[in-house]
Amino acid sequence: MARIVIDMDNVMADLTAHYVNSYEASHGIKLDLQALHGVPEGEVLPEGLVHKLLRSAGFFRTAPVIPGSQEVIKALMEKYEVFIVSAAMEFPLSLKEKLEWLNEHFPFISWHNIVFCGSKTIVEADIMIDDYDKNLRHFKGRQLLFTAPHNVHLADYERVNNWEDVAAALGVEVPAARV
User: Fold this and answer.
1) Do 94 and 137 fall into the same domain?
2) Residue 179: predicted pLDDT
3) Residues 111, 152: one domain?
4) Which CATH number is 69's domain given?
5) Measured torsion, CA atoms of residues 40, 46, 47, 52, in degrees rounded to the nearest 10
6) What per-residue confidence (pLDDT) applies to 40?
7) Potential cystine with 130: which of 7, 19, 117, 151 (Cβ 3.0-4.6 Å)?
8) CB 110 within 8 A of CB 117
9) Whole-number pLDDT of residue 177
10) CB atoms within 10 A of CB 111
11) How far is C-alpha 108 from the geometric centre of its chain's CA atoms?
12) Which among 9, 14, 130, 131 is annotated as catalytic?
């Protein structure tokens, strides 16, 4: 059975929308998501606020789920060995919060299939789904770049824009009403 590793942030959890919503809630200013295309993730918000949010209690726990991820990951698990791999060590508060978030939104994923690490360069699998070039460039298997505003200009990878694209690329069927 082929092994797939799936990133969490901006692949399963919509951190970009979470940054924008958090900024609007605290500053009363709504940012245009289209204006963020091509902007490095750490510069999405003014004044280095992304790094403050990433170190804030509750931030990772309250991120919205990217539509279709739950249904497609369930379908993938019927055909592949699936692991969730997140480089969580830089933000120690995220460890507990990410696990709680996964348990709430993806209760069908066993703790045996969750890996929190510092660097993904040690990860070995057949397929990696990630939004970051730094994680994909050293990966030796099939590399699927999940579209996020910070990576729209990258062209070196097989791109998937959403979970419907993931299902099609990996040959799993999910009823259209569920994705």
Assistant:
1) yes
2) 53
3) yes
4) 3.40.50.1000
5) -70
6) 81
7) 7
8) no
9) 52
10) 8
11) 17
12) 9
7 flagged as catalytic: yes
Q: How many residues does the chain have?
A: 179
Is 9 in the active site? yes
Residue among 7, 14, 130, 131 flagged as catalytic: 7
Reduced to 3 states (helix: H, G, I; strand: E, B; else coil), residue 101 is: helix
Q: Residue type for 158, please?
A: E
Please report the pLDDT score of residue 31 as a whole number. Answer: 83
Mean pLDDT by 10 residues, the chain (179 residues): 97 93 86 80 75 88 97 97 95 94 98 96 97 96 97 96 98 74
Asked if 141 and 135 touch (Cβ cutoff 8 Å), the reply is no
Could you give the number of structural domains in the chain? 2
Range of the structural domain that residue 35 is part of: 15-61
Indicate if 117 and 84 belong to the same structural domain. yes
Task: Judge if 95 and 170 occupy the same domain.
Answer: yes
* Whether residue 98 sits in one domain with residue 47: no
Q: Are residue 57 and residue 120 in the same domain, yes or no?
A: no
DSSP secondary structure string for all residues of 99-120: HHHHHHH-TTS-GGGEEEES-G
What pLDDT sits at residue 42? 72
3-state secondary structure (DSSP) of residue 77 = helix
